[in-house]
Design goal:
It comes from Bradyrhizobium lablabi. The termini are far apart. The longest helix has about 30 residues. The chain is elongated, with a radius of gyration of 27 Å. It is an all-alpha fold. About 65% of the residues lie in helices and about 0% in strands. It folds into two domains: about 50 residues, Arc Repressor Mutant, subunit A (Orthogonal Bundle), CATH 1.10.10; about 40 residues. It contains five helices and no strands.
Length: about 110
């Protein structure tokens, strides 16, 4: 039985792939899919070539934006919390009524 042929890439190709990740600001997975590589292969190249270097602007950028909720967001959160509490209460009432109609008491 013959296994899959292992692909080899030149150092120049690896450098260009790592540079594409760094310059585009896109995820390693997205660049890997575009280049037809496995995520783990490209991630290893990034780690090997990025060791000891200053992190790029894309690497320093936080993955999530921590912002304080505005007044509109705060009002929406409060409304959703009230609705959530009301729905929990309705659910509990239905659970209790099912127990009563089924003949069992909880």
């Amino acid at each position: 039985m013959e296994g899959r042929q292992r692909r080899s890439f030149t150092d120049d190709y690896k450098r260009q792939a790592v540079d594409l990740v760094a310059s585009s600001g896109r995820s390693i997975g997205s660049v890997a899919r575009e280049l037809g590589l496995r995520d783990s292969v490209l991630r290893r190249w990034v780690e090997l070539r990025g060791a000891g270097r200053e992190p790029t602007a894309a690497a320093r950028r936080p993955t999530t934006q921590a912002t304080l909720p505005s007044a509109d967001h705060a009002a929406e959160i409060a409304r959703l919390q009230r609705e959530n509490e009301r729905l929990r209460m309705e659910r509990d009432i239905l659970k209790k009524s099912i127990a009563i109609f089924a003949g069992t008491r909880t």
